[in-house]
What does this fold into?
Amino acid sequence: MKSQIVLNRYDGGTPPAFSGYWQDIPLNVTLDLSAVLKLAGHVQIDERHELLAAKRDTVIAALSRLAEMGQIETRSGRAETMLSALDLD
It folds into this structure.
């Protein structure tokens, strides 16, 4: 079964962080500098504070791969992970 991952909102900050859900568990995703550079050097967001569709699909695909490998940490009912450029390949 594929992991269902939804990114809802850009939370800002440095490094950039996003919130969403993974299998109905609240998810926080942080992009390290290499990931930001891989996504064209900056994180583009739309007026709803979401990643633009193409970039969101890239990030969700990377998160899905990490989830399938068991690489997303869950603590106290929350999931957290950091993505690097290597994760986005």
